[in-house]
Amino acid sequence: MAMASTIFSSTIPAKSTRETLSVRSLSSSLSSVRSFNNNNNKASFKFESLSLSSQSNRFLKNLTMASATTTIDVEREANMKTPSKVLPFRVGHGFDLHRLEPGYPLIIGGIDIPHDRGCEAHSDGDVLLHCVVDAILGALGLPDIGQIFPDNDPKWKGCRSSVFVEEAVRLMHEAGYEIGNLDATLILQRPKLSPHKETIRANLSKLLGADLSVVNLKAKTHEKVDSLGENRSIAAHTVVLLMKK
User: Which residues, other chains included, contact 157 with Cβ-Cβ below 8 Å and sequence gap of 6+?
Assistant: First the structure.
């Protein structure tokens, strides 16, 4: 009995020690878990805060971009509605070209020119007056002749081009400008325009309401090159200076 008691007594402390160690290990593990969870919660909080911060930044960025876009659109619309800037003078350039075909009259600057071919066009095909109109409209910053007098509108079928000039001159005066000077160049192989130049120039001066001295007209061949030189087409260039009244 003494031996058994001794053995029993000696085993008790060993068991208690193991249990104590186990409890300490468990306690340590629980502390680690708590520490891990706390750290994870902090990291998660920081991550969520960062995510929210990023989302806020993106939202503010998108809001700023939308605001800027709206501002640009508003400014663009405002500029489109703003009248052309008033300048002391304005310069415009016009160009036109028409195919020459048999059976059509050749009208240049409002004058009938004898020839076996004429300009195929929706209106009377006056290449000089068309480019004069475009030069004036261009100087005023307005749409070109094809937009104002479209060739798919039956109203302008066979119309005299002097009507277009009258409208361009009206718009010019309405904007507060007058002709400073005009320089035009006709390009055609035939017929020779020398006999008709002064008549054309005088009529152009009359249509524009400008002094004859500020209206210049030149004529050139195309040295038998391409459709112009082969008498299959006619072209004209015009430069106009508009002066503020």
Answer: 122, 123
User: Any idea where the domains of the chain sit in the sequence?
Assistant: 105-244
Q: What is the pLDDT of residue 145?
A: 87
Find the distance separating the first CA and the last CA of the chain, reported in whole Å: 138
Residue 209 CA to residue 166 CA, distance in Å, equals 10
By C-alpha distance, which of 153, 191, 141, 148 is closest to 166? Answer: 148
Give the C-alpha separation, 54 to 15, whole Å.
57
Find where tokens 């008033």 sit. 86
Token pair in block for residue 240: 């106009």
- Structurally, at CATH architecture level, domain 105-244 sits in 2-Layer Sandwich (3.30)
209 touches 170 (CB < 8 A): no
| CA-only gyration radius of the chain, Å | 45
The SS3 call for residue 102 is strand
> At a CB cut-off of 8 Å and minimum separation 6, what does 52 contact?
none
Which tens digit of pLDDT belongs to each residue from 22-64?
Answer: 444 444 544 544 554 455 444 444 444 444 455 555 545 554 4
Question: Hey, CA dihedral for 41, 44, 46, 48, is it positive or negative?
Answer: negative
Question: CA-CA distances (angstroms) from residue 105 to 52, 57, 100, 186, 223?
Answer: 78, 72, 10, 17, 24
Amino acid (one-letter) located at 205:
S
DSSP tag of 149? S
